[in-house]
Amino acid sequence: MRVLVVTHNYPRYAGDPAGAFVARLARAAQEQGNDVRVVAPHAPGIAETQCDDGVQVLRFRYAPEPLERVGYTGELHRRALVSPALVLGLAPFLMAFRRAIGRELRTFRPALVHAHWWLPGGWLTPRHAVPYIVTCHGSDVRLLDRAPFRRLARPVFAHAAAVTTVSRFLASDIQRAFPTLATRIEVAPMPVDVEHFASGATTRRAQPPRILYAGNLLESKGVAVLVHAFHQLRQRGLACQLRVLGEGPAERMLHALARRLGVFDDIQWSRFVPQSAMPAEYGASTVTVLPTLGQAEGLGLTLVEALLAGCAVVGTPAGGIPEVVVHEQTGLLARSGDAADLAAQIERLLTDDVLRLRLVREGQARVRATFAPARAAERFLDLYRDVAS
Fold it and tell me: Is the pLDDT at 375 greater than 80, yes or no?
């Protein structure tokens, strides 16, 4: 069948993490004999038409190239949380996106549309042209906490042939936002390149043992709590190092905090690295930590990737993290916002080899069974066939 994928995130170049899971699913559908085409925003320095392992990717233009900065940054949903008017004010981007979708509906004539994130892709997809599926990834679900966005989203979800989410937590949030919604909601995790991340297990562990955070530097991610926890571990005389790998608006605050605690020079600060380098990052680390605050975590994919590379994991009971980190079975959970408890859980994994190896072994088995590309993609292909028929 012909499948049109609509997304504001899709890898711009080899190793680009932006929308990598969307690309894996598109490629898997193409490999199964479907004709898959992707509509995504253009970005500076890339072609308007690309072929990604047989998947045709069409990048729509919406501004002079130096000003095409809307997609690929996560800024769209962060702006939306400040004010719906800021999103609606991105008129050139939204209008060009809608035109590109309409053009492909006329010329490509897909059997169905798969929109990743209800905003903007799902919202811009025509309601009655062809059946469409909406997949929510987390940041878009958080928008539903606000009444203006629930009003925008209601017709998107109501007319969708199906809605999928990457975790049970997100599915329950959608059901809570729309308690009378008749549309089917399914939990279908995105495929992970299992063997790619498993290759990190051959990497030599850093000494002293490394604690890794990899992700956006946002206050909601709880990285400040991790810096406090690292400070406590160092005060106890525990030999360890912390590597913070990421970028974002909280970077300046985190640097100031680390300087105030006297651990700035003991932390390895790094910008994002290509996906091709991430297995080695996880493999060199003893513990990967995702200390998210509140409920602002759709699933916690970095924890899945870390386990595949043989790295133990610590999370918090935020959002979908407990669906990956089952406490004392596949990893350890620390109380949200509690630096002392986070330090204690990290210390357990740094000092108890038997515990750490058991949790990694059980964690690897769990994530392989859930996120292996063939298995994850098959769930979506079954849904495609059901919706198209």
Answer: yes
